[in-house]
């Protein structure tokens, strides 16, 4: 079998594999248990974060009667020579305000008196956090954070620091950026508890390690890689030792497994769940992209298509024919607007009025002609032009409207927008794009490499297959069965590791 052709006795190979698996198991059994047990928690509790959907939910309806300045007048108050990449009319500190983005920089101008918000004081930040949390401001305790803590340890917070952290007696915590005045993180006692037992141990997301991004990446890649190897050789040993012909004897009875006690139970569980342990460790390693499988083509294509659809900058002068105050007065009873984005599709200006997540109204900037989404034909035309001019004469080979989640467009939390417009090109990467017609933004993109990654990472790690997601609790039952089985396998590993270490310590003690 193994090694016969090169003159190595199979028994030697078997002993070597058993030895390697035993000691790698001793080293990694606690980590495996951590991963499996925390995986159960992660099925239902995510790491806390503030999303664009959360921000919209916490915004009050816009008061159009208080909007005095047009968007161009407000931008003029900044004295900026560069164009804005994005512009929004929103509510800040109880007042209508324009928020402009210029690359990574953000500026805020109040729409009632044109005052520029130059800095975000502790008192202002407290009012923002209080409005977000719904708690009284005088009950909050404040701290100024200039370095990472457990909930702001990722690189995404680097440009947002310093952060005001407000804590209320019920343990709710809200973080406000001193740079933008926005809530950038929000946690509760329950969400932190879920993360402590779920995402943090599962991702090895411990602050001292995670704050060094390169070190954290290396640790996750190497530990998951070694874990994959340990599980793989354990699977080989288990299959090799198993005898379908029942050639072993156990208490005088024929048996397919030569062991007894915990070792026997470990072997049985390993035969059932060893493959799962191997594939989950491997797919977990792929989450860190240790050997890139592509994706650059889809990123490049997405950038070109997104720029063609929405542009790099917004031309604010094109929104002068309709004042936002008049827009809100005309549609106030119909939409209950919380935010207005000044946008364009293929150079044509539009207002995108949002009243709730996935509830938008598209209004032309010249006469306020309303629709629930951008023209699908126009979106297709833009993608077609980009394919022909910027992607080596690529043509659209398939386009359709996606009204339910499918293999490459899934979300078990049902937050990804539906319907979506699916478009595939015939370029060498067979690029695929899912575009939200309500915002004309690319939600998901794939090329050859990222399609492989979708199955090897997400498919193996989360079992996110359409049928399972659509027929829950089928997904829950299968995932829980595999995770509980893997957890039991890890428990037997820890018991065996304790026995091995105890035996070695006794042998060492007897020598002295």
What topology does this entry show?
Layout: H1 10-42, H2 52-58, H3 71-76, E1 86-92, E2 95-102, E3 105-110, H4 122-133, E4 141-145, E5 163-167, E6 173-177, E7 183-187, H5 189-197, H6 199-203, H7 207-210, H8 213-241, E8 248-250, E9 253-255, H9 261-286, H10 296-310, H11 324-335, E10 339-345, E11 348-356, E12 359-364, E13 370-371, H12 376-390, E14 396-402, E15 420-425, E16 432-436, E17 441-446, H13 448-462, H14 466-470, H15 474-510
Antiparallel strand pairs: 1-2, 1-10, 2-3, 4-5, 5-6, 6-7, 8-9, 10-11, 11-12, 12-13, 14-15, 15-16, 16-17
Helix pairs in contact: 1-8, 1-15, 8-9, 9-13, 9-15, 10-12
Describe this structure in words.
The structure is a single chain. The protein is an alpha+beta fold and 512 residues long. The protein has 3 domains: 1-43 and 194-295 and 484-512, no CATH class; 52-187, no CATH class; 296-446, no CATH class. The protein is built from 15 helices and 17 strands. Strands 3-2-1-10-11-12-13 form a 7-stranded antiparallel sheet. Strands 4-5-6-7 form a 4-stranded antiparallel sheet. Strands 14-15-16-17 form a 4-stranded antiparallel sheet. The protein is elongated, with a radius of gyration of 29 Å.
